[in-house]
Each structure stands twice: as structure tokens, then as C-alpha cells.
Amino acid sequence: MQLMHSFDDFHQLFSSPQRVAVIPHLSPDADALGSSLALSHFLRKKGHQTTVVSPTAYPAFLAWMDEEQAIVIADKEAQKALEAVNEADVLVFVDFSSYNRLKSLEAPVRKSKAKRMVIDHHLNPDIEADFQVWDVKASATAQLVYDLIEGIGDKALVDNQIAQYIYAGIITDTSSFKHPSTTKRVHLITADLMEAGLDTNLVQRRIYDTNSEARLRFLGFALQNKLTVVPDHYAAYFALSIDELEKHSYQPGDTEGLVNYALSIKDIVIAAMFSESEDGIKISFRSVGDLPVNEIAEKYFNGGGHKNASGGIYHGSLEEATQLFLSILPQYDHTILEQVQIKC
Ligand code: 5GP
Ligand code: MN
């Protein structure tokens, strides 16, 4: 389903120079950060003042995106973040649709009298917006950023930098054009971005070939020692304690993609990663086909997301979280078997 207010609403919102706070979800990934930066640069070109305010830090492998080091991290620069939100005429929410993904920014955002814009591809948006670009079928929020820019007739403003940000969002959310969300349109947008000067290989290297040695060693450790396969339910998962993470000099982003290794096993159609943190047990779910892991995340793990990629948080021990997951699996046995047949 697609919900896009008419472009008149966009023009109305930005009819005169606005102060804009562009806000990705907490722990922003390349899509949230890339889409925010692409929009921010685009809006600046249109004569607006923008600040990208992230609730929490972004992973180190995305530092190249923040060349000017202009992103305000609310966790680290609380006052600056608060000012950006309080002084904004327009708040733009990027790659999320629920205020509970804002951490310390939630209260000031709720209080703000600013106009609101949402651009997102998650299910069940629950933010009242003056302008909304929302499509759960979109491969990435970055795709929607491009749709918007093109839709309002500003394709010519897409420069190499904006193209890099949009491409970064698309490749990470589609696993480099692997997921079924990768439509012809996604490839055509990429072709457009290349025409705008995009060096695809450069962005690929910046995202996938900038591992630290510690991260690779950590990956080796997790694959060797922390992967549990549950053949009866065609499931596999990782469970990592704080101690184990700290022993491997864990940095934010180091566990990114780990869950996909569990899903890459032949016949595995549901995968999870549980990682202990000070805020609780963080969980990532992945699935194949019609197995709705967003439902599991919503019902049992205070989370949500997409049908095949979701996440949440569990308040309790690592052991309790994995036991809960194992206890839920039998409910999905009927779908699980179907997906196993479809997978290969
Ligand atoms: P990841 O496993 O990459 O952290 O998250 C995959 C997807 O799950 C995200 O794109 C997001 O849609 C969703 N997600 C992850 N964590 C949470 C959470 O705590 N709450 C909600 N509502 N969604 C989440
Ligand atoms: Mn996304």
C-alpha cells in the first residue's frame, strides 16, 4: 500500500525557507542515515536550513557519510539536539513511523508544535503527519527519497553526494539487490544515480570493505561458538552476552548482518540474533517468504519491523529471551514447512 499526500502538501510545507530537523531512528542504519542526509542536502539546495539529529550514534562504518561531522547525536550532544528540535519549523522523520524509536528525543518531539513530515517503509505508521511518503513495498526509505525528489520535478538536483546516500540506503536494505523488494524500479533508480555521477564500487567498498580486524575475529567467534541451529523448526540463532561482546572489543554496528549468516544455512527459514546490552536484550529477526517475523517481534519482543526483517527488545535475561523464542516456534510450524519448500 502506498500513501503519499499530494505533492501540493510538500510544496505548502516548504513554500518559504524553513528550519528543518531531519531525524532518523535510533541506532540508525545506512538507510536511515543515508535517507536523512540525502533529504537534508536536497532541502538545503532548495533554500532551507537543515540539521540531521540522530537519537543515538551511528556505526563507525558509516562515518564516511558524515564527512562534515555535522550530524548531532542526541546521546552525546543533548543540548544541541534539543535546540535543533525546539527551533525547527518542520520535523522530518526518516525510516521509522513510531515515536518510541526516538529515545531521549521522544519527549521534545512530542511537545514540539512544528509541522511534521514522515518518509518511511515500515508497517503501521502511527505518527500524524502534515506530509507523508509511505510505502511498505519500497525496498528502502532511500528509494522513497528518490521518488519524492523525482515526483516534485527536482531530479536535476540529485548530485553525486545525494546519489551516494540514496544508493547506500538501497544496497543495505536490499542486501545489494538480493531481497524480493528489488524491483525493476530499484534498478532504474540506480541507473539514474549512476547518471548523476555515482561511483557504485566506491560506496560498496566503503560499506562492505571497511571491517576492523576485531570485527572479523568477532564474526569468527560468533560463527564458531555462538550459533545454535534448531533443525526441528528450521531455525537458527545467535545469542551473545555483554561479556562476550566486550571481550571482542565490540563497537556499535559490529553485529550488523550477523543474523543473515544464520538465515543463509540451507533449509533455515527463520533466524534470530540476541545481543545483551545495558538497555535489555536486543533482538534481530530474519525470515524467508511468508513467515512474519514482525508479528513475533511485536507480540513478544516489544518491537516490530518488516515481514522478513524485524527487531525488538526483551527485558530479562539472555537465556529467557532465547527460551521464549524457542517456545514460540511451534506456532509457526505450518508456515515454516511451506517456506522450506519454497526457499530453494
Ligand atoms: P535490524 O535487525 O537490522 O536491527 O532491524 C531490522 C528491522 O527491524 C528494522 O528495519 C526495523 O524495521 C525493525 N526493528 C528493529 N528493532 C526494532 C525495535 O526495537 N522496534 C521496532 N518497532 N522495530 C524494530
Ligand atoms: Mn529502511
Bound molecules: guanosine-5'-monophosphate, manganese (II) ion
Major beta sheet summary: 7 strands, mixed
Overall morphology: globular
Weakly predicted, low-confidence segments: none
Task: Output mean pLDDT.
Answer: 95
Q: How many beta strands in the DSSP annotation?
A: 13
Kindly estimate the percentage of residues that lie in beta strands according to DSSP. Answer: 15-25%
Distance between the termini: 28 Å
Order of helices and strands: EHEHEEHEHEEHHHHHEEHHEEHEEHH
Strand line-up in the sheet with most strands: 1-7-6-5-2-3-4
Structural classification: alpha/beta
- Helical percentage: 40-55%
Number of helices: 14
Radius of gyration: 20 Å
Keywords:
single chain; 344 residues; alpha/beta; seven-stranded mixed sheet; six-stranded mixed sheet; 14 helices; globular; binds guanosine-5'-monophosphate; binds manganese (II) ion
What does this structure look like?
With 344 residues, this protein is of the alpha/beta class. It has helices spanning 7-13, 30-45, 78-87, 106-111, 141-151, 160-174, 184-195, 200-208, 213-225, 242-247, 258-263, 293-300, 318-328, 333-343; strands spanning 2-4, 19-24, 49-54, 72-73, 90-94, 115-120, 131-135, 227-230, 235-240, 270-277, 280-287, 304-305, 309-314. The strands form 2 sheets. A 7-stranded mixed sheet has the order 1-7-6-5-2-3-4, with helices on both faces. The longest helix is centred in the N-terminal third of the chain and has 16 residues, at 30-45. The radius of gyration is 20 Å and the shape is globular. The model has no long low-confidence stretch (mean pLDDT 95). Residues 31, 95, 121, 140-141, 173 line the site of manganese (II) ion (MN).
